[in-house]
């Protein structure tokens, strides 16, 4: 022991010189826990292995070492985190509160190493301990607490908020089971549970002492209080406790570490066994199970609402905990409840947390005894709402009866909010009954329902879409009446992605090449990538650029070989479509192109054709039959194409299973061609399109979502455009679109569909894909057939371009160079300036002294 202390003392001397924290003197304790030198890191890993994992090297498993390293890194986050919390939560600054039912974070370890700026040091420390860092990084099970783009956006925004040193808390649900793990058996998707916590989670800190009670169900008692005020008392059927689990989110090379606070549901109190008789005991155990169920599992639907009672309970549970938490923080600072909106800017990530509007009203009125007008004023100044979808089937509504059974008090409040609102709009739009009924918070129809988008619009001072086209269409379609009522609320905030995870972490070779040319400033100011433009014609740079791409493709090819036993040629064009499987995203249009190419080869086996590897990945909602059939179709076509000797390996089709952040990080950097082929007017923004283009892929795409802006930025000559515009889609449908006519008049399309129907890809079973082909023939809602010919022609252009290696390299470089706009830092700056009205608050490293208190 004595020897240990001595060596630590010795080290603290060397540590001081290498650290840039200025005048602050490191104490011995800080040094061993927080030092960043290779020697100190080695010691920290060894210490954690012994003191946390209780293992010594001879018996330690790979997971033990992963945990030891993770805790060593976490120690280095904590001082920044504590300093940030002190400065923000106890300070006077306005704090962003991001409410999201989903966070698709991806693994933490490597990201934290990059943001701490100690990747190299840890790599060396591991090496000297006889460990391989990559091998430990791969051991981390990612927290898959989201479905796709929406949850991943929340994760990118947390990274950017911290990097921009903006005080922020992310609130959400600590699902015990995240998005299911996908396996492919006999070409079909099968789901397995995501037990991501089974080996423990070193990145979270359970705050047992920090909890809030949430009421559910029951009924309302009305009474008149002493002052003659009409009051409501909610007698719940069930009370659930929400316990806070905090994860630090560190910014890139700054001291700011914000908090992601996720709520776990539990029964309110442990049981006093002796006080129960047998019947009550069973009852108590049942209650406990019901409570714990609320944060048990993430609903695996993307762009599809799930009208289940548990889903509503989840939404209300996390929103109530979060708002109670914010009010606590605010009041603990000695502030007045009336000033709540000055402390917190609350962003609703879609309508999932929209019940917050009513919950804040309830808390202010029922718990804090403010009057209606004061409460409503605070509420609308607090909330802002981001819409994420134009698909009518994804707009959330709740059956009124179900809603009232879970949230009786909130239903009362909604009636009252709606009564006052409709009084107002009836005057404003006198006689326009259609408009008035469109704006109502309650929808009529077969069964009455609560409209969450209307609630979010009414209760917010700002409403935004997530790409220019999407924000425009919102005003024209789903939120048209709201736009006419309050045009000043509307704005656009085009999505972005964090370059830290999506370039620096996932594509280190590209990072190195870029930084050699233009320095490292682009990592925090992505517009600096434009400095690459002047090298786009430089043959040497082109070669280096394409070498990086080829190496990424080789690495992915290796993974594919290992995972699927399929050999793919890294020199072939990697044509990639990875995203949730959905009819509007049109993976099946991509498959029709594959079949068309295959048939071309079959007719003329000696045809000169650009070899391609088609890579698909993505999960389908478990109950979404047609999406599951699309997965089966991809695999079935792959089986035929990959094994047909006539093809001679020139075409390969692979479905990479279990698309998640970990796999995405391997796939995006290896793409030559990015498939962004949704029906125009359906994809709100997309962020996969951004990640791919940033990594030098060229896009083949429609004028949908952020594709429009990507094309404007990279230049139309560097983008393969096809398909109908959103306006043309609407016109085509209005004119009575008949997909069968396209089938009859396009021989290539007809052949492909007939072939699927003949059983050619399904061992002669003519029924396997019938549901899918029938829907295309008779009810092609997403206009695959209308866009087919245009798509085939754009693919021919892409193939032609790929033959000209210098031209392709130039186009690829220009894609990356001109994508600076699509950093989530830019998005977050716009939210801060225009919606939240918050500023950066740099965290002083000196405040780390509070650790010594
Ligand atoms: C970026 C991302 C998405 C969203 O992809 P889109 O192509 O925009 O639909 C979904 N899942 C994961 C894992 C991602 O990283």
UniProtKB/TrEMBL annotation:
GO CC annotation terms, alphabetical: cytoplasm
Extent of Polar residues compositional bias: 15-25
Gene Ontology molecular function terms on file: glycogen phosphorylase activity; pyridoxal phosphate binding
Record key words, sorted: Carbohydrate metabolism, Glycogen metabolism, Glycosyltransferase, Phosphoprotein, Pyridoxal phosphate, Transferase
Biased composition (Basic and acidic residues): 1-14
Reactions the enzyme catalyzes: [(1->4)-alpha-D-glucosyl](n) + phosphate = [(1->4)-alpha-D-glucosyl](n-1) + alpha-D-glucose 1-phosphate
Spans annotated as Disordered: 1-34
EC number, as in UniProt: 2.4.1.1
Cofactor(s) needed: pyridoxal 5'-phosphate
GO BP annotations, alphabetical order: glycogen catabolic process
Highest taxon of the lineage: Bacteria
N6-(pyridoxal phosphate)lysine modification, residue list: 691
Family: Belongs to the glycogen phosphorylase family.
Function comment: Phosphorylase is an important allosteric enzyme in carbohydrate metabolism. Enzymes from different sources differ in their regulatory mechanisms and in their natural substrates. However, all known phosphorylases share catalytic and structural properties. Allosteric enzyme that catalyzes the rate-limiting step in glycogen catabolism, the phosphorolytic cleavage of glycogen to produce glucose-1-phosphate, and plays a central role in maintaining cellular and organismal glucose homeostasis.
Protein name: Alpha-1,4 glucan phosphorylase
Source organism (scientific name): Aquiflexum gelatinilyticum
């Amino acid at each position: 022991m004595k020897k240990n202390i001595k060596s630590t003392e010795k080290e603290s001397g060397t540590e001081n010189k290498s650290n840039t924290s200025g005048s602050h003197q490191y104490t011995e304790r800080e040094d061993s826990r927080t030092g960043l030198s290779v020697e100190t890191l080695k010691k920290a890993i060894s210490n954690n292995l012994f003191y946390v994992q209780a293992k010594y090297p001879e018996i330690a498993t790979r997971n033990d070492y992963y945990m030891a390293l993770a805790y060593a890194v976490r120690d280095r986050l904590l001082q920044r985190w504590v300093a940030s919390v002190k400065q923000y939560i106890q300070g006077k600054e306005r704090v962003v509160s991001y409410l999201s039912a989903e966070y698709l974070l991806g693994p933490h370890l490597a990201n934290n190493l990059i943001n701490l700026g100690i990747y190299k040091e840890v790599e060396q420390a591991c090496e000297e301990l006889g460990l391989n860092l990559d091998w430990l990084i791969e051991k981390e099970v990612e927290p898959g607490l989201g479905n796709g783009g929406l949850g991943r956006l929340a994760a990118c925004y947390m990274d950017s908020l911290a990097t921009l040193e903006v005080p922020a808390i992310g609130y959400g649900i600590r699902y015990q089971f995240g998005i299911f793990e996908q396996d492919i058996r006999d070409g079909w998707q099968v789901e397995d549970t995501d037990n991501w916590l089974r080996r423990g989670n070193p990145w979270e800190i359970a705050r047992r002492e920090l909890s809030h009670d949430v009421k559910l169900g029951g009924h309302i008692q009305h009474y008149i209080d002493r002052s003659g005020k009409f009051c409501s008392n909610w007698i719940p059927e069930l009370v659930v406790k929400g316990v806070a689990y905090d994860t630090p989110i560190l910014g890139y090379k700054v001291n700011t570490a914000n908090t992601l606070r996720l709520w776990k549901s539990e029964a309110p109190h442990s049981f006093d066994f002796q006080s129960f008789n047998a019947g009550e005991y069973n009852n108590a155990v049942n209650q406990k199970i019901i409570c714990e169920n609320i944060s048990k599992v993430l609903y695996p639907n993307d762009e599809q609402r799930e009208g289940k009672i548990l889903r509503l309970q989840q939404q209300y549970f996390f929103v109530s905990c979060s708002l109670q938490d914010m009010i606590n923080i605010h009041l603990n600072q000695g502030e007045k409840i009336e000033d709540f909106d000055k402390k917190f800017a609350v962003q609703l990530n879609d309508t999932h947390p929209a019940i917050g509007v009513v919950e804040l009203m309830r808390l202010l009125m029922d718990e804090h005894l403010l009057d209606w007008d004061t409460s409503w004023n605070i509420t609308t100044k607090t909330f802002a709402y981001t819409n994420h979808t134009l698909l009518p089937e994804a707009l959330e509504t709740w059956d009124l009866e179900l809603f009232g059974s879970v949230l009786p008090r909130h239903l009362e409040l909604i009636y009252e909010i709606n009564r006052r609102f409709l009084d107002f709009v009836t005057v404003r739009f006198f006689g326009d009954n259609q408009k008035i009924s469109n704006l109502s918070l309650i929808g009529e129809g077969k069964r009455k329902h609560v409209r969450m988008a209307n609630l979010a619009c009414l209760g917010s001072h700002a409403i935004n879409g997530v790409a220019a086209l999407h924000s425009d269409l919102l005003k024209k379609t789903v939120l048209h009446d709201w736009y006419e009522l309050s045009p000043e609320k509307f704005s656009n905030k085009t999505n972005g992605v964090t370059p830290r995870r999506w370039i620096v972490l996932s594509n280190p070779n590209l990072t190195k090449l870029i930084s050699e040319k233009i320095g490292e400033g682009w990592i925090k100011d992505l517009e600096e990538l434009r400095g690459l433009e002047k090298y786009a014609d430089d043959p040497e740079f082109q070669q280096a650029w394409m070498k990086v791409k080829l190496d990424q493709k080789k690495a992915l090819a290796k993974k594919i070989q290992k995972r699927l036993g399929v050999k793919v040629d890294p020199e072939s064009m990697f044509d990639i479509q990875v995203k949730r499987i959905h009819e509007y995203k049109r993976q099946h249009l991509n498959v029709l192109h594959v079949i068309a190419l295959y048939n071309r080869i079959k007719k003329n086996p000696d045809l000169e054709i650009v070899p391609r590897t088609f890579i698909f990945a993505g999960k389908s909602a478990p109950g979404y039959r047609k999406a599951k059939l699309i997965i089966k179709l991809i695999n079935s076509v792959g089986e035929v194409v990959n094994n047909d000797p006539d093809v001679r390996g020139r075409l390969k089709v692979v479905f990479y299973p279990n698309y998640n952040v970990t796999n995405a990080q391997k796939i995006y950097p290896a793409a030559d061609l990015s498939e962004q082929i949704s029906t125009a007017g359906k994809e709100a923004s997309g962020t996969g399109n951004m990640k791919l283009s940033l990594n030098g892929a060229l896009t083949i795409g429609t004028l949908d979502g952020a594709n429009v802006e990507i094309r404007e930025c990279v230049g139309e000559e560097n983008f393969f455009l096809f398909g109908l515009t959103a306006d043309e889609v609407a016109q085509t449908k209005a004119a009575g679109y008949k997909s069968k006519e396209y089938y009859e008049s396009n021989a290539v399309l007809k052949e492909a569909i007939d072939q699927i129907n003949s059983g050619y890809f399904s061992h002669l079973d003519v029924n396997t894909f019938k549901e899918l082909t029938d829907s295309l023939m008779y009810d092609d809602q997403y206009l695959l057939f209308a866009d087919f010919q245009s798509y085939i022609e754009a693919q021919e252009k892409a193939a032609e371009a790929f033959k000209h290696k210098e031209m392709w390299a130039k186009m690829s470089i220009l894609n990356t160079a001109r994508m600076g706009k699509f950093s989530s830092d830019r998005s977050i700056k716009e939210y801060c300036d225009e919606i939240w009205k918050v500023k950066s608050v740099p965290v002083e490293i000196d405040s780390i002294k509070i650790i010594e208190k």
